[in-house]
């Protein structure tokens, strides 16, 4: 398998999942702004959406969208290692979290990366993000991870979102559960491996 990624972007989530699963994979860095690969070729030939992540499977097919990719990785890993079994209520809880992180949290961050966005608009999105972070903070009270005591691919995704807070000057100090969660996930060897491979450890 080959993961197309941009350092520190949401593609870090499937990168973490691959490291956690211990599956063999290659990395291909993408220049998101230019839509180019390292050899200068057109990334949209791989993923017409032009975004990361994309995962090329061994049969040559390409899967896009992080929540779908991490579930595929989880299903290729040892049973129960990164996701509950398909068809169980616990799996639907995982999908519930992946959808919430993707649509409510992740999408609220997008405008803050736009250099032309005005301060009033940025404050609007920061307030929206804080509301969602508070929701998650309350739901993980007393838990090690989103689903309880076991790490899942949803935790890797949430962790990546939380790493953006520092870059965007979003204060997490009022969310004690999230601060503890972020430190807990950051200490995992597979997370350290993925971040090192993307050149992020010196920025953490």
TrEMBL record:
Recorded superkingdom: Bacteria
All copies of domain GST N-terminal, residue ranges: 1-81
Domain GST C-terminal positions: 87-204
Keywords per UniProt: Transferase
Claim: tRNA-binding is one of the keywords in the record: no
Molecular function GO terms recorded: transferase activity
PANTHER family documented for this protein: GLUTATHIONE S-TRANSFERASE GSTA (PTHR44051:SF8), GLUTATHIONE S-TRANSFERASE-RELATED (PTHR44051)
NCBIfam families per UniProt: PRK10542.1
Protein known as: Glutathione S-transferase
Species of the source: Rhodopseudomonas faecalis
């Amino acid at each position: 398998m080959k993961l197309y990624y941009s350092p520190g972007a949401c593609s870090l989530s499937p990168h973490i999942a691959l490291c956690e699963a211990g599956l063999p994979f290659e990395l291909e860095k993408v220049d998101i702004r230019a839509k180019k690969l390292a050899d200068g070729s057109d990334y949209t030939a791989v993923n017409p959406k032009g975004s990361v992540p994309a995962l090329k499977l061994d049969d040559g097919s390409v899967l896009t969208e992080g929540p779908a990719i991490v579930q595929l990785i989880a299903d290729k890993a040892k049973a129960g290692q990164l996701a509950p079994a398909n068809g169980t209520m616990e799996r639907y809880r995982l999908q519930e979290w992946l959808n919430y992180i993707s649509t409510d949290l992740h999408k609220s961050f997008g405008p803050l990366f736009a250099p032309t966005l005005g301060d009033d608009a940025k404050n609007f999105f920061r307030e929206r993000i804080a509301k969602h972070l508070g929701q998650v903070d309350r739901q993980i009270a007393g838990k090690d991870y989103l689903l309880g005591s076991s790490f899942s691919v949803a935790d890797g995704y949430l962790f990546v979102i939380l790493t953006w807070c520092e870059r965007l000057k979003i204060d997490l100090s009022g969310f004690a559960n999230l601060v503890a969660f972020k430190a807990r996930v950051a200490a995992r060897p597979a997370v350290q491996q993925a971040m090192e491979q993307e050149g992020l450890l010196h920025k953490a």
